[in-house]
Amino acid sequence: MLRTLMPRGKPGHEELSAGDDVGDLSFIQPVSNGWTSQSGVKGTVSGSYNRLVGSFFIVCWRGLAANMPTVGVRRELLFKALGRAYTDEEFDELCFEYGLELDEITSEKEIISREQGDSKAAGASDVILYKIDVPANRYDLLCLEGLARGLQVFKNKLEAPRYRRVRPVSGESQKLIITKETEAVRRHAVAAVLRNITFTQERYDSFIELQEKLHQNVCRKRSLVAIGTHDLDTISGPFTYTAKPPGDISFKPLNQSQEFTATQLMSLYKTDSHLRHYLHIIEDKPVYPVIYDSNGIVLSMPPIINGDHSKITLKTRNVFIECTATDLNKAKIVLDMMVTMFSEYCLQPFTVEEAEVVYPDGKACIYPELAYRKEKLSSEFINRKVGINESTEKIAQLLTRMCLRSRATGVGDEIEVEIPPTRSDVIHACDIMEDAAIAYGFNNIIRTTPHTYTVANQFPLNKLTELLRQDLAAAGFTEALNFALCSQEDIADKLGKKISETRAVHISNPKTAEFQVARTTLLPGLLKTIAANRKMPLPLKLFEISDVVLKDETKDVGARNSRRFCAIYYNKSPGFEVIHGLLDRTMQLLEVKSARGDGYHIQAADDNTFFPGRCAEIRASRSPPPRCNQPL
Amino acid sequence: MADTGVAETLLRWVEKADVCLLPAVQVISAELRSSKHWELTGEGTEIAEQGSHEARVFSSIPLEGLAQSELMKLSFGKIGFSKAMSNKWIRVDKAHEGGPRIFRTVENIEDQVREKLLLVQRGNSCELEEKEKNELKKRRLLSEVTVKSYWITKGSSFSTTVTKQETELTPEMIATGSWKEKTFKPYNFEAMGVALDCGHLHPLMKVRTQFRQIFLEMGFTEMPTNNFIESSFWNFDSLFQPQQHPARDQHDTFFLSDPALAHEFPQDYLQRVKRVHSEGGFGSQGYKYDWKTEEAQKNILRTHTTAVSARMLYKVAQQEKFTPVKYFSIDRVFRNETLDATHLAEFHQIEGVVADYGLTLGDLMGVLHQFFTKLGITKLRFKPAYNPYTEPSMEVFSYHEGLKKWVEVGNSGVFRPEMLLPMGLPEDVSVIAWGLSLERPTMIKYGINNIRELVGHKVNLQMVYDSPICRLDS
């Protein structure tokens, strides 16, 4: 409904008379942040153009930009692993082709200097670092080892290694026994052993860093999976994964000099900038997960902290890896990633010693799974989906370059593709198809025009809106564009209404009061626009045609949008006739006659938002219905 | 014009009219000549005649002295007394019987002030130093006078009769034809025109109109996106976005407390979505997790208009026979994100979708090429990317001539079979789609730094008034 506007505000402003400046909008909360000065804007336009273009259009599609993990690697180490040096431009190009992004070329010194100032950076290393953005589903590219391996295979310089699970030479595999108590908090666990591994400082750093990257991504900040790595030579199996009341768990945690109970630890880590983010995962549970060795030594209290006793060092030769989880599938993926990435440094590269996990029901499983899966598809499928025309052999070669070892089976155009344990992202033939397209080169694909014949239609409500907006501007009113979200106050108290009367939908997790509800009326936005533009010459004539949101039980989601038109006239004198004139013009545009009965008319109404006696409601009869489908 | 006062009239004329304009008329030419000289003020003239105040004080004091009160009664008493004191011509005996009494301290005085003023009066002011003249000016005894004069000569079209120039053409002049004989005052074409009283469309909406136009030109039908509230089911699950995906986090998405849950879902479709997430199927391994209806029921403010695309594609799948469609939408989406100069909690997403048999990745690139050409962007290349609901996924980059580098302009992909097949779309139907934001191209187009000056109530209305029309391809 369009209402003629005479803002009254809250009691105390009621003594305003018709001659008063109706523009007294002091009841509207002053905008908290001042204007960016005009000159400031003008002065930086040219500069900002370039700056903005750097990131150009915001990428709307979810999933990529915000969650894309960044991996930092030392350039020299990367080039050593790649077997050649690249210029920054060449490497950037390679990344682009493979679906990575060379986000930044920097150094430790530069990072510290930027974050903490030059003085702190004095002694830091100025070795060049590449910060590389990795697609969120490619966990196998989250460390130097995986990145180099992937790129080497892509460049045909290396055959993808084959990861093998082996039985221990002694014949007796490490055993992790899960007790029933874990069911209350974190029921899954998997484990494996990296035997005869050789760490260097760089490898060790990368090993720790990969755990952190996995924790942040696939492990969903340790809530789904938590990784613990231990020096196997300091502990002795079988290991027990159980859960106990926090008071009953006591051990010396990593990098501490004394023992703490789990209860004490939780309060100790409350202020830890890193660990405090994980406390909530188990904090309110009656029992906390804990892993013991056969001598009662605590390996870890997942997902919070490992024990100090079994911590790995540069000298560690045998690593026991355990992953505890609420999602078994993710735990298997994470374990596979850890062992496939670092078994490279074992005496027998790419072999992983198995571990046995025994469930409370007595069932035993061998981990890591390191499962290779075979898929069969036709080259015709790939050619058809990508829009290329390559031979079966060529497509098999393309896929092999993406670490998906493939071969033409000889049966027609069939290709057998082997999906390695490192490629958990491949879950459908379309994923294989994409890899073929990447190896072929997206930019080598010929751009074609689909033959799809369609006739365009406008959404009638939007069509009406577009047409009406033009004519309202022609009537001398200026279009405003306000947020659909606002505070409860904006749509209730400040308009003299009760929030319960508004039919507003409420947001459960707003970060600030600005996002408490979806607006139920366009009026507050226009009033706030005026309040923020009081330096402008009068009169201000504004309008907005946009959606508000109302609860509606007849809809599947319990709410619906409603398209509204609101206009406001702001001047030293009230000018009811101006807004009334705009209404008449609008109705003329909509072919609704001014008449009681068959048409529209206005009549006095009482509304808390408006000055007494200065408010009218618009009544229109629906026969014949106006051409718009929605009430205005 | 009478003979008398010609000079006067001329002067008035010259003074009133822009002197610079007169030569253009060429009736007369006037040359401005000005000179300066010093004159005595009224007080200065009095001193020149009768002596300075201090000299008059001195001379009015007899040898036996004069009571101060008597002196102060004289017109020059007050000013003269202090000056004479500072010249040390007189002294005061405060202890004198019958009140303070003033005595001469010197026998003779030299009245320099008077001498100087007399010099000026005689027209010999040049004999005084600038400093001395300024001092006398400060005492308001002298003033500097500027005399403006015009040296007037006949102009090239000199005439003894002067016609008044007309300022505006009137209907009468046209009717009578008198305009032919009249001369008109020339317009000042250097001045700006009058600011008009007009309404304006918002720049973001102007850009929206253009994007809408482009889609319509390309035969795309507009989707009904007027539903800001969406269930997690349509926003995420139907798009094969797993329930533990970070985008579904409280930190990224606005959830609703009222109405908190959505209630109606197409049940058999929901079951198929559940199966493809938790167990796989339709050729997929699935995500292998425990898919929960309760999670799908949660109402949110939609995070992308792709939720509407999902609803529309589901609808297409329910038709008896599949018919190809091309859809677009431009509408608001919401993210519970940290806000800065380029990010708001709500923005407009532009989305295009094509569903047909046998669409290829090459087709997607071709459509994108056509779309961006209409925006004036012709040099495109594509980078492999990851989206949960498209495979392949491509980021669209355009070459920026100014920056001499490739910049990202959009995101695109082919919808996953795990999304399309549970809806019931035929297996050989492919759906290609792309998305970008409306705000960023608008900010670039209109040179706006801070998104808050463009969208929301803190908008700079002057910017709205001043913004030019929107032609994206030029």
TrEMBL record, chain A:
Matching Pfam families: B3_4 (PF03483), B5 (PF03484), PhetRS_B1 (PF18262), tRNA_synthFbeta (PF17759)
GO CC annotation: phenylalanine-tRNA ligase complex
Subcellular location: Cytoplasm
EC assignment: 6.1.1.20
InterPro entries according to UniProt: aa-tRNA-synth_II/BPL/LPL, B3/B4_tRNA-bd, DNA-bd_dom_put_sf, Phe-tRNA-ligase_IIc_bsu, Phe-tRNA-synth_IIc_bsu_arc_euk, Phe-tRNA_synthase-like_B3/B4, PheRS_beta_core, PhetRS_B1
Key words of the record: Aminoacyl-tRNA synthetase, ATP-binding, Cytoplasm, Ligase, Magnesium, Metal-binding, Nucleotide-binding, Protein biosynthesis
Cofactors that this protein relies on: Mg(2+)
Protein name: Phenylalanine--tRNA ligase beta subunit
Originating organism: Monopterus albus (Swamp eel)
From TrEMBL, chain B:
Keyword tags: Aminoacyl-tRNA synthetase, ATP-binding, Cytoplasm, Ligase, Magnesium, Metal-binding, Nucleotide-binding, Protein biosynthesis
PROSITE patterns for the chain: AA_TRNA_LIGASE_II
Coiled coil: none
InterPro entries (alphabetical): aa-tRNA-synth_II, aa-tRNA-synth_II/BPL/LPL, Phe-tRNA-synth_IIc_asu, Phenylalanyl-tRNA_Synthase, PheRS_DBD2, PheRS_DBD3
Signal peptide residues on this chain, from the entry's feature table: none
Broad class of enzyme this protein falls into: ligase
Superkingdom to which the source organism belongs: Eukaryota
Gene Ontology terms describing biological process: phenylalanyl-tRNA aminoacylation
Location relative to the cell: Cytoplasm
Entry's Gene Ontology molecular function annotations: ATP binding; metal ion binding; phenylalanine-tRNA ligase activity; tRNA binding
UniProt xrefs under Gene3D superfamilies: 1.10.10.2320, 1.10.10.2330, Bira Bifunctional Protein, Domain 2 (3.30.930.10)
GO cellular component, one term: phenylalanine-tRNA ligase complex
Residues covered by the Aminoacyl-transfer RNA synthetases class-II family profile domain: 206-468
Chief localisation class: cytoplasm
EC id: 6.1.1.20
Similarity field: Belongs to the class-II aminoacyl-tRNA synthetase family. Phe-tRNA synthetase alpha subunit type 2 subfamily.
PANTHER family the record matches: PHENYLALANINE--TRNA LIGASE ALPHA SUBUNIT, PHENYLALANYL-TRNA SYNTHETASE
Full protein name: phenylalanine--tRNA ligase
Species of origin: Monopterus albus
Higher taxonomy: Eukaryota, Metazoa, Chordata, Craniata, Vertebrata
